[in-house]
Amino acid sequence: MKIKVFLIILLFFPFHRLSAQSPSGSLHGNIISFDNEPIPDANVVFQNTTLKTTTDANGNFSFKNVPAGTYILIVSNIGYTAKRQNIIIEAGKKLRLNFQLSKSRQELNEVAISGARNHYKVKNSSTSTRMDIPLLTTPQSVQIVSNQVIKDRQAFTLNEISNSFTGMKANNGSGSFSIRGFTAYSPTDASFLLYNGIRGNLYLWSQQPLLYNIENVELLRGPSGALFSEGSPGGVINFVTKKPLAKERYEFDLSVGSWDFRRLSADLTGPLSKNKKLLYRAIIGYDKSKSFRDYQDKENIFIAPSLTYLFSDQTDLNLEINYAHQKTNQQYDNGTYIRTNPDGTFDFNYYPNNLTVQSPSDYGKTDNVSATLTFNHQFSDRLKLTAVHRAVNSKLDYTDHIPVGKIRNDSISRGYQDWETSRFSLQTTAYLAYQTNTGSLKHNMITGVDYNRYGWTKNDYQYKPATRISIFNPDYSNDPPAESVKAQESDDNKRITNLIGVYVQDQISLGEKLKALLSLRYDSYNAKETPLSARDNKQGDELQASGFIPRAGLVYLPAAHISVYASFLKSFNPQTSNNVLSGGPFPTRRATQYEIGYKGDFFNNALSTSVALYQIRYANILASAPTEENSHRQEALKGTRSNGIEFSATGTIQNFNIIAGYAYNDHVILTTSTFGKKGDRFNNAPKHIASLWLKYNVAKGVVKGLGAAAGVRYVSDQVGQISNQNFVFPSYTVFDAALNYRRGKYNIQLNAYNLTDKRYFTGSRSGTVTGGLGDPLNYRLGISYLIQ
């Protein structure tokens, strides 16, 4: 028996050695995304074996000395649909396989939060090209402020986060912003604010857009008409909203702060069905506050439910509803008084911060609602359809006192506005993304059509003279003017604009290092304004306009994480304000931008840097040109030119989060006219804006979870009114700081703003009598509770 066992072992041993030494082959390959971009850190596994590896930064992988045989290879990565493939490894032969992974909606939902925690850098933006390609290969200056930045700064409105963007600032406490020296203002630029890349601003110009349901905020600098039609020539803002997740997650936030500020919010998400195909998200917010300014009480209610149904990895449908209700004592702040000295200079510190021309009898009520239905279907790895319908309706009812004329003997004349309006936007967008090859060239193509019907169904406006008041001792007993006082201006009309646009775009890859982006859009506008009663003293206003909008860009990647680019952008924007009472009708606005730039990712792609040089020429831009008789007067400039350079750095290096930026901008008038002289500076356009926000997160030790941050922002002087180049707001520097402590499910955070209590002006509204005033020293204390 012992001999038989010995013989069996002896016979088995050489066969075992022979099996171990059997001939082998090798496997090499590359994994890319649907957009032809390499996927690093993807998992490549031989099923039921110990053979596995991950892809490098260029998406490459390799296996050597693989025993010959038949295997099942599994390729996967977070955010992508896994692929399985049967393969045969032959002895002495090299097998090469290339894989292309499509995005998985469900997996993306699950990783959306955890992947971004404590990180400032966002790698991709699908908005600027409507293709999910890295910012590195996008031939346009794009900056993204992540949700983590919003939380670290305890920013609750776009105005409060705007100073995180290089070259952007809020001009006042309402919806006016400066980007690359141009004023972006909702009524003038219908698509200045986008939601998930779709036109239809939820908020009116008198409001600060809320961030309750916002995941990221994107700034696309320069004219972006090739995809989005009209917009500010300096850039557009895109809100990326929070979507339903496949993983249960509940977050509750409470904040208190200066001037009786109170804020509550809840963000709930997860699956509604066992198979995780039906997902929901519910966001609820409430805030109420006073101000260091008189009569600036404000209350907001925000509700945003959304549903996503995942038919499969290739098909999904999302419905998102937003409702925002605002009640205010003042719909917006008309600004702090500014004294004109006898010699024509200005004293910006003469009048106290709190004084205002507005009356305690004024009020504002706004109801905004939107519904967005988005359908995505991926026919194959190469063809995808997206269809979106967005409907927005905003109702405003407010009364307001405004300054009229100049300050004399510390008193001011006033006008009274009574306005009710109902505004709407219906946007339908459908586009196909198609990927193909022609020889050695790879094409990522987008072709689509937009239909937008927008305007107002009610615009009931009256302007009356109001009583003159003493600035230091105002008497509001005669506010508002009596019904018997005759209106000097009166509107009662409706306006409907129909826009049809078609476009095609192709990103061409000429090898691995050179990419070209070509776009062409055609827009056709038809608008009509119709009086609704005899009170409207206009005869109606009609507009027909059409034109082509081209775009071209070139990107070269000398190294894996460095790119240089050049781009040419144009815009074609009909005037949305042709009101005769404001000086209209006005000629069509046209912008042309030339830009060259550099982008680079460093420290294992943790830090993103960019430099951009640009020139924008803009013809027929509308600017405020008030007179003592007409504070609403506007005038079209024959031409302006904005030259500039921008630098920005965003990311996370070990335990440090950083956002840094510097922008130089020179925006001047090109021709002399009654409005201004050649070379005059444009209003609300400082030449220098610099900012830095740095946060350190403690990852180990007794105080693990502690974070400390500091920020500084510098804005150089800026002209407040084009027609008066001596009206110059002084430069200012503001310091901020923050502390937070995260322990388990809780996070406690304290933010302090304007630490030195600097008195500074953010910009002008319409004249030299008042100016937007920045907040003095204030604080916010917040606590959040997260379950996931």
What does this structure look like?
The chain is mainly beta. Helices cover 5% and strands 57% of the residues. The chain is globular and about 100 Å long. The model is unreliable at 1-21 and 106-117 (pLDDT under 50).
Note the main attributes of this structure.
3 domains, 788 residues, mainly beta, 22-stranded antiparallel beta barrel, globular, Immunoglobulin-like, 5 helices, Maltoporin, Chain A, 5-stranded mixed sheet, Ferric Hydroxamate Uptake Protein, Chain A, domain 1, disordered N terminus
N- to C-terminal distance: 63 Å
General form? globular
Helix content: under 10%
Known CATH architecture of the largest domain: Beta Barrel
CATH H-level homologous superfamily name of the largest domain: TonB-dependent receptor, beta-barrel domain
CATH class of the largest domain: Mainly Beta
How many strand segments?
48
- Our count of helices gives 5
Output the CATH topology of the largest domain.
Maltoporin, Chain A
The structure class reads: mainly beta
Query: Low-confidence parts lasting 5 or more residues at pLDDT below 50?
Result: 1-21, 106-117
Rounded to the nearest angstrom, the radius of gyration is 29 Å
Q: Tell me the count of domains.
A: 3
For the biggest sheet, the summary is:
22 strands, antiparallel, barrel
Average pLDDT over all residues? 88
How much of the sequence is in beta strands?
over 45%
